[in-house]
Specification:
The radius of gyration is 23 Å and the shape is globular. Helices cover 63% and strands 2% of the residues. A two-stranded antiparallel ribbon has the order 1-2. The protein contains 21 helices and 4 strands. Helix 1 crosses helix 3 (55-70) and helix 8 (183-213) packs parallel to helix 19 (415-422). Strand 1 (428-430) and strand 2 (436-438) form a beta hairpin. The chain has helices at residues 12-21, 37-44, 55-70, 78-95, 100-119, 122-131, 139-159, 183-213, 215-219, 221-236, 240-243, 246-254, 283-304, 314-338, 351-354, 357-373, 376-387, 393-410, 415-422, 440-447, 459-479; strands spanning 428-430, 436-438, 450-451, 454-455. The protein has 480 residues and is mainly α. The two termini are 35 Å apart.
Length: 480
């Protein structure tokens, strides 16, 4: 039954501290840590994890994600939102005494609703349930999922959490449409974004291995959280693109500059209120600032996502891609300004209308996020719904597909697959139809698990406790 598995900590206050700060001492409540998407995938494929979706986990996850995001760490709320919504679905299903199959269907719908709330993108939520959770849903089930996502997004609009009376976090408009000569640029941006994303995944795997081989950090993750919080503050304060939270930074980078001249067309020679829209003489310095921010953000992002706190990866990885795309966009602006007489630029009124760095940032955000998560369709739809920039559907799609192809060449596993393997979960293999099925390693791991030195006779309890003990047992073995 949800919420009735063996207690993991001595008392409620200690459990709350464990979930929100990462301190474990001899024990920790791991179901509330991390993104939770990997556990949702396990649930979607038929593996019962009651303690991961109970009332206690829900409370810890909500409090924990508020504190982790507000702390300024390079983490997002999107993955935890999926986990939180799935917890709610599991609690409702358990209260209504649904059978196993209907409970899993309701939790899948809840997971899709969680993503739609995180991005304000109902269609992306439906796509997420198919692409990431690999649901083989009937048309009737998809319709139910879509209706729930629409209701959730509309509720978000009524609550207006961003203060804009809109359900999306970004409100972006561009003064000019993309041009044919920009397509190779977008494809190139997708390629380097995919390579960068795959590199982030590889670095995250190395970081997990190194961190868990250090005894004091492996046994006391609170030390790791405190040290990284201090390091994040020291490194981020000095740069305008690392100082703000990830959502504000993404909005600033992807916003169109809309330079305007009183005597004619848009100009790159007049100052703009937006600090991310430099004039021509300031562009080289601005690019240098962006590159420094990119290096800092990439470094802190790799360090942040394995902390024992609630943390999402979607928007932070988008910020990295936006920084990369913005650098490329401003570089092209300088080139066009230097050689405006080239025939391919004949249709441009000025360098500011010939290339839009904000659009490059948007495309780069999708490309690098795809390199990390390997969700091309979900990310394409989510970014289009978030920004309303339907004019950029073609270049965005091309860049994200290219990023997926490039990332798969460098690193076949997504970030969530790496986290799942590092935490002791066996990965879900894909069959020929693309659906997820438990692998033989999963069966062996879960069926042979022990708690202490006593084998659990109850199969469900073995599954629940084995996954929660994997991280701790693996940590102890590596540190001995």
């Amino acid at each position: 039954m949800f919420g009735t598995v063996r207690e993991r900590c001595a008392d409620l206050p200690f459990q709350l501290i464990s979930a929100t700060t990462g301190y474990s001492g001899p024990k920790a409540t791991y179901p509330a840590a991390g993104s939770g998407v990997a556990e949702v995938k396990l649930m979607s494929n038929g593996i019962e994890l009651p303690s991961w979706f109970g009332v206690r986990t829900l409370v810890y996850k909500v409090v924990g994600v508020i504190l982790s995001v507000a702390s300024g760490l390079n983490v997002g709320k999107e993955g935890p939102f999926v986990h939180i919504a799935t917890c709610i679905g599991g609690i409702v299903a358990q209260t209504a005494q649904f059978d196993k199959n209907n409970r899993r269907l309701l939790m899948n719908v809840s997971a899709a609703t969680g993503l739609s709330v995180a991005f304000g993108a109902p269609v992306a939520g439906v796509i997420f349930s198919l692409e990431e959770l690999r649901n083989e849903s009937s048309p009737k089930q998809l319709l139910k999922t879509f209706i729930c996502c629409i209701i959730a997004s509309h509720s978000l609009k009524l609550l207006s959490p961003y203060g804009t009376n809109k359900s999306v976090m970004l409100d972006i408009s561009f003064i000019s449409e993309w041009k044919a000569f920009e397509l190779p640029v977008f494809v190139f941006l997708g390629f380097i974004g995919g390579i960068f994303g795959a590199t982030i995944v590889k670095a995250s795997r190395l970081r997990l291995t190194l961190a868990r081989s250090v005894s004091c950090i492996a046994r006391h993750p609170m030390i790791e959280v405190m040290a990284l919080a201090l390091l994040t503050g020291l490194l981020s304060f000095w740069n305008p693109f690392t100082r703000d939270d990830v959502t504000s930074t993404l909005s600033k980078l992807a916003t169109g500059c809309n330079h305007s001249s009183a005597s004619g067309p848009p100009s790159l020679h007049e100052p703009h209120a937006n600090s991310s829209c430099p004039i021509i003489p300031d562009i080289p310095t601005h690019i240098a600032t962006l590159l420094v921010a990119l290096a800092i953000k990439a470094f802190l992002t790799v360090l942040s996502f394995s902390l024992a706190v609630p943390a999402g990866i979607y928007v932070p990885s988008m910020v990295l891609g936006a920084l990369l795309g913005k650098c490329l966009g401003h570089t092209l602006q300088l080139f066009i300004h230097a050689v405006p007489q080239l025939p391919i630029f004949a249709t441009c009124a000025s360098a500011s209308t010939c290339i839009t760095p904000g659009a490059c940032a948007l495309v780069g955000a999708g490309a690098l996020a795809c390199g990390v998560t390997r969700l091309p369709v979900t990310l394409t739809v989510a970014l289009l719904e978030m920004t309303g920039s339907l004019d950029y559907a073609v270049p965005l799609s091309l860049a994200i597909v290219t990023a997926k192809w490039a990332a798969d060449m460098i690193e076949p596993e997504s970030f969530y697959d790496v986290i799942a393997r590092a935490n002791g979960y066996a990965l879900l293999e894909e069959n020929g139809e693309g659906g997820g099925v438990p692998s033989s390693e999963t069966t062996r791991l879960l069926s042979s698990s022990r708690v202490g030195s006593v084998r659990l006779e109850d199969e469900e309890a073995a599954i629940v406790n084995s996954v929660s003990d994997c991280w701790e047992e693996q940590t102890v073995q590596q540190s001995v």
